[in-house]
Design the sequence.
């Protein structure tokens, strides 16, 4: 029949190939060389193809490399990679010899290049830096031959032009190349025998190998199986076709291959096939999806659970390979399959506790052959945590890439519980096997999916997860094995049936807090530094959104995260920024205006909030980003559902700034006190410069309008403008917050009024104030008392009449000027002292400048530490607010401090291009924060210097 | 008033034996039902060897001596065991040769400050090895558990002299402190605690957490001393306000703020710490609050005098019910609580001072109300203050008001003040510039 006819050439090719094997070792070199030289010239023609550095000539001998045609049936995997490479190299050398014989410089040059390329591979495979002796020998040979050719002027003249050209090129190249290996060449020339021997030995060994190989080939059960199946299954001959055709439809071939009595499929067959597919990774012409399918098929024919597990690992990594680029994400359906595979893996691991997944131990060759009834431990290479983390990353990426306003996004979000269940199971497994470090990592992943969810969202997720699965998603049920069955339902049922032991639904405790607490305690106990830091940030974030400001604050201060945030990776810094933002919002909701301002001001001082929170790309005026930077930035973006509402954040920041700044401005009409919020001042200046003031449109306009009203003490208008903002509806306890805000506005209006107009009154009754500002008598009394105590208001109470009696402490103009002069003088003295210190610091031998610098530094640190403890900490914390921009800015600040001493004051400020502004802002805050303590320190060091 | 009782929060940081005084006090105050306290005591005793005491309590808890309330066999067995062990220690214990050595004053003279030498000497001449020394520790512990605190302390002192086991000698130090506290040897206890503090602060502890825990223990234990020792009032402020200790309080023991607050209020010379205290109280207000801290908060944060007064009233009960603060002293036939009186005197002055600072004219009757005094009492009090020139004010008797003299700093003075500073600084600067230059000149001349 036709099939038999067609089968024959296939057999013939195989035969011939094994004949070639035989030739390779038994025949004299000469014959082989002839063949090779022919093919060598072939390769010249289709040079591009050989670019991989592999000889195309010995096609039959080295089919391992060729995935395009025949015999993917097994013998390509038989030899170890190392032998293979050496063998290839040898063949190239042989080819060169041939070329020398016919004086073909063109092909010689070609081979030489090939050889060099190949050298890298060989060295890599041999895992040593040593250059193979074969290569050196070839170089010597070439050198000699070259010298000979050059000497023979006659012959040179006779050469064809291309040949001569090649000769010259060769001369140059060889000279350059040989310089690298001068020593070895020298050695080789001195002791040619040793090199010779070595090479011969190599050859012998290889021959042995080859012998074995060819034997193995004969016995290759796979092939036998195939030929058997071909012989037996007559009906399907149409499809069977020649090898070439099967090649193009690999999966079909696989079907055929395994479409027979299960008992005939052995572990070896499957293993061989697996290795083959795995080896094809990254090769040209292998479809990524096809690989996945092939491997998936293999999982069903796996003979032992361990093997199944091994193959599953390969499937999973192949699935991750489906999308090669860093920017894109894994297709959603592949992701889902991957999730199911992970669950399957966990099923196996649960079912067979004797199977151990490790990366450290190199499993034995036949490790997975041990069956289900094997009692000892079976090692399988794999890394569950890495898989899980990758799965998470891919999930994150899809969300990053999907348009948040589409249904896809929502759909994708609904799949989060699927990941959570895998994570939960992996964590359980790891805890069970006692790998708590890894479990902590997994726990962190879970935390990072939960931390930003307020209780309401968390509840929604819990409900979603508890719903029966098919209602969650229709396509979901057909995943896993069933799904595969749909793909190729002609296939046999899986040999190793694993029941679903691992739960397929996540379990969530009632409140998000409980879940977080559970995970946290695991992480704190076993996590590494980064895991702990991130978990801590997530924890703080979660506390902040649950309106537990004090807990969140204490956690932040105690953890000292602010100290090291600049040293963390960027994504952690972003997380930190998010935490600070959320902490600010939380403080605001709790009515802690100063704290809120402290948290947020740093975020807004740079004007790059979006970038700092990774919630969108912001254009910078000062400096264009390179595409590379932009890509990086895009990769860091938070998915939409994790965003912190920027309008709310801005409103919060500006309102806090307003409440602090307006009384401050009113108080400091005479003495120019430093503004508390520079950003706010700047905005205010801009808005005051406007000729016409329209009705407020955006958040900023609203706050500015409110500021104008508050400035006049008109608390009603200020509040009504603010409360007209749309964003308040985003708040959970809106009424409560607005009530708080109203009170704060009234308070600050009262303060502002007193600051501004106290000079106009001789006395003012408390009654009048309470009616003016709609405050309770007690409250107003308390505020005014506080102002008196802090000497903000020069007045005192007249208790019987309940009046404020103002003391006239007005300064005359002269006095005011005098005060200013005193201030300026003190600045002058200070800079003198600094200059002195800088000078002597460099010249005095008694006090080496280095030492002093450190002293300063440590005293600084001490102070900051203290900040933590005594917690103006929060303010301090705010100041030290990290972020990328912030971080570099701070660096600038430091530099400036030292630089100032070194008379290079301007240097620090220019720290980094666009960072100029924050750098500047920071310098000022930095130096002022050091304030008094610094002065003291300086005095001390001055004394010391004086004595010396 | 049991809501402000801190015993439950204090107890975990104290030694079992140190809790007894607290329970005794509670029993005396009658804040809790008698049975509960007795039951608590019994549970406490279960871990000790004070079996007789436990039996007595058991009897009183379960209905006197009439048969059915008799302690069960377990207790009796335990008693026999304890007595047996005690006898063994005295007769056949491994540390007997050591006791013999220590009892002989002449032999004790042989000991030198050098521990290695001592060990060597004991081993060589008396065959007393490390085992015996460790047995000494165990015996001490046993005595302590039996309630023989002075014996325990004595043993532990000896042990510390001889021991080279640093971990155990720290524990011995804790044991000595506990024993001395329970023996009311405040001076000795103070000394031991200071020693402990040095160790805690200096030694590189295994973990910061451990160190924190030790600090908290130390602070709790020290409460016994500070409220009994004559110099304790300063001691508590010194100790608790150290950064590391303040930190520990904020981290894990914020109820200690009560004692710190009381100490600061009562200590006139440490007024400057008040600001810092207020700051801490404010930070911790979400996690710890009692009338005493509220009082300070009202007065110094909100300037809410009514609120302050309200809290002050509540303070009385808090102080009376606090085992450390409410200590009674019997004078003749009247009992007084000296700490309460002192606290109130000072608190009143705080209110008054603050009140006067922001007022120009005060109605004395209202003032009296705020100070929790009668009118004439208040007037007398104010008069005394004015007379002793602590208060710059005059009483307007006709209208019943107090008129404050407002004294504010003259502008000129202010300017002069701010420039004075510049003067000295400039002087320093020039001095330090000129001096080296002169030195250099002289050096040049000398050459």
Sequence:
């Amino acid at each position: 029949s036709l099939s038999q006819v067609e089968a024959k050439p296939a057999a013939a090719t195989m035969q011939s190939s094994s004949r070639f094997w035989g030739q390779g070792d038994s025949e004299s070199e000469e014959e082989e060389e002839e063949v090779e030289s022919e093919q060598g010239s072939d390769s010249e023609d289709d040079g591009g193809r050989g670019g991989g550095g592999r000889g195309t000539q010995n096609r039959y001998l080295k089919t391992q490399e060729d995935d395009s045609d025949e015999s993917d049936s097994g013998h390509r995997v038989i030899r170890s990679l190392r032998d293979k490479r050496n063998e290839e190299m040898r063949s190239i050398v042989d080819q060169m010899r041939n070329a020398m014989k016919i004086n073909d410089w063109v092909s010689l040059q070609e081979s030489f290049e090939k050889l060099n390329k190949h050298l890298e591979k060989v060295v890599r495979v041999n895992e040593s830096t040593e250059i193979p002796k074969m290569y050196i020998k070839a170089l010597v040979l070439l050198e000699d031959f070259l010298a000979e050719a050059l000497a023979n002027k006659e012959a040179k003249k006779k050469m064809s032009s291309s040949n001569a050209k090649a000769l010259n090129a060769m001369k140059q190249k060889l000279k350059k190349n040989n310089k690298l290996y001068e020593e070895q060449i020298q050695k080789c020339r001195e002791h040619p025998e040793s090199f010779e021997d070595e090479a011969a030995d190599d050859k012998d060994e290889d021959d042995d190998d080859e012998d074995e190989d060819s034997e193995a080939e004969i016995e290759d059960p796979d092939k036998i199986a195939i030929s058997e199946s071909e012989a037996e299954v007559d009906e399907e001959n149409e499809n069977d076709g020649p090898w070439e055709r099967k090649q193009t439809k690999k999966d079909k071939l696989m079907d055929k291959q395994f479409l027979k009595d299960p008992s005939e499929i052995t572990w070896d067959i499957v293993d061989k096939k697996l290795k083959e597919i795995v080896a094809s990774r990254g090769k040209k012409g292998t479809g990524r999806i096809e690989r996945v399918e092939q491997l998936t098929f293999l999982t069903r024919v796996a003979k032992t659970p361990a093997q199944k597990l091994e193959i599953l690992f390969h499937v999973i990594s192949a699935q991750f390979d489906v999308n090669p680029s860093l920017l894109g994400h894994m297709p959603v359906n592949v992701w889902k399959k991957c999730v199911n595979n992970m669950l399957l893996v966990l099923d196996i691991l649960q079912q067979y506790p004797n199977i151990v997944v490790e990366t450290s131990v190199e499993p034995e060759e036949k490790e997975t052959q041990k069956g289900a009834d094997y009692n000892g431990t079976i090692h399988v290479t794999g890394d569950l945590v890495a898989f899980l983390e990758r799965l998470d990353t891919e999930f994150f990426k899809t969300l990053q890439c999907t348009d948040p306003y589409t249904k896809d996004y929502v759909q994708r979000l609904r799949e989060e519980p699927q990941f959570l269940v895998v994570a939960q199971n992996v964590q359980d497994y790891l805890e069970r096997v006692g790998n708590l470090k890894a479990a902590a990592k997994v726990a962190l992943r879970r935390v990072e999916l939960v931390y930003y969810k307020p209780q309401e969202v968390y509840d929604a997720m819990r409900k979603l997860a508890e719903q029966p699965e098919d209602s969650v998603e229709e396509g979901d049920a057909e995943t896993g094995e069933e799904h595969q069955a749909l793909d190729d339902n002609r296939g046999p049922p899986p040999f190793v049936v694993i029941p679903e032991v691992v739960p397929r639904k996540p379990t969530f405790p009632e409140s998000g807090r409980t879940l977080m607490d559970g995970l946290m305690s695991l992480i704190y106990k076993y996590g590494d530094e980064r895991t702990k830091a991130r978990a801590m940030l997530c924890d703080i974030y979660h506390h902040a959104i649950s309106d537990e400001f004090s807990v969140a604050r204490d956690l932040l201060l105690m953890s000292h995260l602010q100290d090291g945030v600049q040293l963390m990776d960027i994504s952690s810094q972003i997380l930190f920024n998010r935490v600070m933002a959320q902490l600010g919002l939380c403080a605001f909701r709790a009515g802690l205006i100063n704290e809120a301002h402290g948290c947020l001001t740093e975020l807004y001082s740079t004007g790059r909030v979006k970038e700092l929170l990774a919630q969108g790309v912001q254009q910078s005026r000062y400096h264009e980003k390179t595409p590379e930077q932009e890509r990086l930035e895009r990769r860091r973006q938070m998915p939409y559902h994790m965003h912190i509402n920027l309008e709310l954040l801005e409103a919060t920041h500006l309102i806090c700034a307003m409440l602090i700044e307006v009384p401050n401005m009113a108080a400091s009409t005479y003495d120019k006190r430093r503004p508390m919020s520079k950003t706010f001042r700047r905005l205010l200046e801009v808005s005051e410069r406007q000729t016409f003031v329209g009705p407020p449109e955006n958040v900023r306009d609203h706050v500015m309008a409110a500021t104008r009203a508050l400035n006049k003490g008109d608390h009603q208008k200020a509040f009504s403008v603010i409360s007209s903002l749309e964003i308040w509806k985003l708040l959970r306890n809106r009424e409560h917050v607005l009530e708080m805000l109203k009170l704060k506005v009234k308070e600050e209006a009262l303060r502002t009024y007193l600051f501004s107009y106290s000079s106009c009154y001789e006395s003012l009754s408390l009654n009048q104030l309470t009616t003016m500002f709609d405050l309770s008598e007690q409250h107003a009394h308390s505020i005014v008392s506080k102002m008196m105590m802090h000497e903000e208001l020069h007045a005192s109470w007249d208790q019987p009449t309940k009046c404020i009696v103002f003391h006239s402490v007005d300064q005359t103009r002269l006095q005011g000027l005098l005060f200013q002069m005193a201030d300026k003088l003190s600045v002058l003295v200070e800079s003198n002292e600094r200059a002195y210190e800088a000078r002597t610091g460099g010249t005095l031998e008694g006090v080496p400048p280095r030492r002093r610098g450190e002293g300063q530094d440590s005293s600084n640190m001490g102070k900051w530490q203290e900040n933590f403890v005594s917690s103006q900490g929060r303010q301090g914390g705010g100041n030290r607010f990290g972020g990328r921009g912030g971080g570099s800015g701070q660096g600038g600040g430091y530099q400036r401090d030292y630089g100032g001493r070194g008379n290079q004051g301007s240097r620090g400020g220019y720290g980094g291009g666009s960072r100029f502004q924050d750098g500047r802002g920071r310098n000022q805050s930095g130096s002022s924060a050091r304030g008094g303590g610094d002065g003291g320190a300086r005095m001390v060091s001055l004394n010391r210097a004086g004595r010396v | 008033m049991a809501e402000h009782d801190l015993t439950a929060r204090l107890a975990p940081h104290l030694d079992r034996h140190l809790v007894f005084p607290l329970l005794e006090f509670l029993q005396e105050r009658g804040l809790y039902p008698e049975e509960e306290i007795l039951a608590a005591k019994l549970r406490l005793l279960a871990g000790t060897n004070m079996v007789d005491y436990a039996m007595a309590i058991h009897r009183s808890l379960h209905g006197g001596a009439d048969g059915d309330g008799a302690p069960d066999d377990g207790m009796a067995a335990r008693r026999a065991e304890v007595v047996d062990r005690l006898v063994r220690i005295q007769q056949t214990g491994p540390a007997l040769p050591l006791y013999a050595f220590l009892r002989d004053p002449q032999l004790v003279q042989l000991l030198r400050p050098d521990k290695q030498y001592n060990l060597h000497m004991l081993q060589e001449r008396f065959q007393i090895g490390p085992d015996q020394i460790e047995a000494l520790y165990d015996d001490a512990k046993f005595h302590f558990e039996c309630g023989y605190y002075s014996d325990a302390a004595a043993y532990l002192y000896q042990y510390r002299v001889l021991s080279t086991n640093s971990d155990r000698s720290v524990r011995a130090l804790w044991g000595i402190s506990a024993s001395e506290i329970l023996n009311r040897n405040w001076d000795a206890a103070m000394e031991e605690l200071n020693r402990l503090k040095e160790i805690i602060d200096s030694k590189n502890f295994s973990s910061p957490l451990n160190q924190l825990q030790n600090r908290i223990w130390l602070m709790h234990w020290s409460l016994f001393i500070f409220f009994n020792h004559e110099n304790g009032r300063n001691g508590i402020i010194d100790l608790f306000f150290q950064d590391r200790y303040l930190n520990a309080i904020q981290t894990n023991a914020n109820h200690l703020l009560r004692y710190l607050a009381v100490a600061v209020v009562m200590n006139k010379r440490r007024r400057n710490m008040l600001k810092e205290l207020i700051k801490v109280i404010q930070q911790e207000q979400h996690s710890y609050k009692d009338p005493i801290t509220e009082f300070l908060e009202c007065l110094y944060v909100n300037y809410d005098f009514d609120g302050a007064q309200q809290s002050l009233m509540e303070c009385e009960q808090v102080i009376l019910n606090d085992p450390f603060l409410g200590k009674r002293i019997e004078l003749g036939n009247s009992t007084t609580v000296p700490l309460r009186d002192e606290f109130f005197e000072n608190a009143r002055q705080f209110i008054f001072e603050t009140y006067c600072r922001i007022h120009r004219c005060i109605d004395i009757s209202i003032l009296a109300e705020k100070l929790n005094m009668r009118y004439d009492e208040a007037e007398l009090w104010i008069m005394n203050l004015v007379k002793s020139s602590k208060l710059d004010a005059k009483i307007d008797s006709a209208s019943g008001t107090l008129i404050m003299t407002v004294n504010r700093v003259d502008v000129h003075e202010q300017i002069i003040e701010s420039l004075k500073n510049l003067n000295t600084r400039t002087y320093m600067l020039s001095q330090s510039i000129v001096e080296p230059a002169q030195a250099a000149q002289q050096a040049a001349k000398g050459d």
